[in-house]
Amino acid sequence: MTKPGSNEEEYFARSEYDRLKKIEEAKQVRLAGEERRKDQELHYMHCPKCGMSLIEIEYKSIWVDKCAVCEGIWLDVGELESVSQLDKKGLDRLFGGFRKQG
Predict the structure, then answer these.
(1) pLDDT higher than 60, residue 102
(2) Which of 69, 70, 86, 89 is the most buried (most CB within 10 A)?
(3) Residue 45 in contact with residue 30, Cβ under 8 Å?
């Protein structure tokens, strides 16, 4: 039996490294997906400030999330742009519904 040359050893070492790297990358992608799902289960529709439940309110096709406890108001992607396009009267109506009563 002949001893493999250094080029052969390097080739097989590189091949093995590439194979193991692909396995590890696939594992990381799977774990990241699982982590995202867990985070969503824990945080979806919860206030980023106090962690309590958010209530969705629709105004002119804009969904605004308001915290039931700290009364923070949260907008999803694109909603700030939609709110910014409302005229002054529309803004007053939108945020007037969020003012504390009493």
Answers:
(1) no
(2) 86
(3) no
Most confident listed range (32-36, 68-72, 87-91): 68-72
Strand order from edge to edge, sheet including 73-75: 54-59, 62-67, 73-75
pLDDT for 26-35, tens place per residue? 988 888 888 8
Contacts of 82 (CB under 8 A, 6+ apart): 61, 62
CA distance 8 to 2: 12
What integer best gives the mean pLDDT of the chain? 83
Asked if 94 and 71 touch (Cβ cutoff 8 Å), the reply is no
Q: Are 81 and 61 in contact (CB under 8 A)?
A: no
Q: How far is CA 5 from the centre of its chain?
A: 51
Query: What Cα–Cα distance (Å) separates residue 36 from each residue in 15, 16, 45, 57?
Result: 32, 30, 15, 26
Spatial CA neighbour of 59 closest among 35, 92, 27, 36: 92
